[in-house]
Amino acid sequence: MKKFVLSVLISTVILFLWSGVSQMFPWGVPSTQTVSTQSDNQTESFQAPNLIELPPYSLTTPDFDRQFANKISTLTTDDSFSWIISKPIDSYSMGSYFVKEALTQLVVALILGFILLLTVKLDLKTRLGVVALFGLAAVAAIYGQMMNWWGVPALYALGAGFNMIAGWILAAWVSGKWLTKKSSILSN
């Protein structure tokens, strides 16, 4: 049991760090367009080198914020259809993002840990193949749907899917190689 808990904690750290590092790949944060129309620069805009700054209220009105804050919405104009996820500026907190990301990765690490426990009698290569298959299923279910319904660009979706599967395999490899291997689990 101790090795399983240690496996989950180490996997959580690996997944958390990987999710941060992989955001810097070309299909991650650098692929986003960052636009600001703030009148008093209330927040930092991710230190974006290619920040597009437009005059306040050139794209929105206060009614936009009232209509869209804390909702998932669609917006149809004469020339485009957009999915919009919006939240009030005062609820924006990097600290809260990091805590939620750590909790998310803890849940993923727990699930990976159970997959590794269920496959403990298999060799490491096969176990990693099982994790990769679960990853492919998750990528298809999440990013395939997002490409279809939300119009997420294929480069971003495929890149994010690669990041997820690579992170899962890395965490599973570390755990399967040293912590949740047949000899250590069956002897506990």
List keywords for this structure.
single chain, 188 residues, mainly alpha, two-stranded parallel sheet
What average pLDDT do the residues reach?
A: 87
Strand order of the largest sheet: 1-2
Largest sheet: 2 strands, parallel
Which range best describes the helical content: under 10%, 10-25%, 25-40%, 40-55%, 55-70% or over 70%? 55-70%
Distance between the termini: 7 Å
SSE order, as H and E? HEEHEEHHHH
Please tell me what the overall shape is: elongated
Uncertain segments are: none
Provide the structure class: mainly alpha
How many individual β-strands?
4
Helical segment tally?
Answer: 6
Percentage of residues in strands: 5-15%
Rg result = 21 Å
What's the arrangement of secondary structure elements?
Layout: H1 2-22, E1 35-36, E2 52-53, H2 62-68, E3 71-76, E4 81-86, H3 94-118, H4 124-150, H5 154-178, H6 182-186
Parallel strand pairs: 1-2
Antiparallel strand pairs: 3-4
Structural summary, described in words:
The chain has 188 residues and is mainly alpha-helical. The chain is 59% helix and 9% strand. The protein is built from six helices and four strands, in the order αββαββαααα. The chain has helices spanning 2-22, 62-68, 94-118, 124-150, 154-178, 182-186, and strands spanning 35-36, 52-53, 71-76, 81-86. The strands form two sheets. The chain has a two-stranded parallel sheet with strand order 1-2. A two-stranded antiparallel ribbon has the order 3-4. Strand 3 and strand 4 form a beta hairpin. Helix 1 crosses helix 3 (94-118), helix 3 crosses helix 5 and helix 4 runs antiparallel to helix 5. The longest helix is centred in the C-terminal third of the chain and has 27 residues, at 124-150. The chain is elongated. The N and C termini lie close together (7 Å). 16% of the residues are buried. The mean pLDDT is 87.
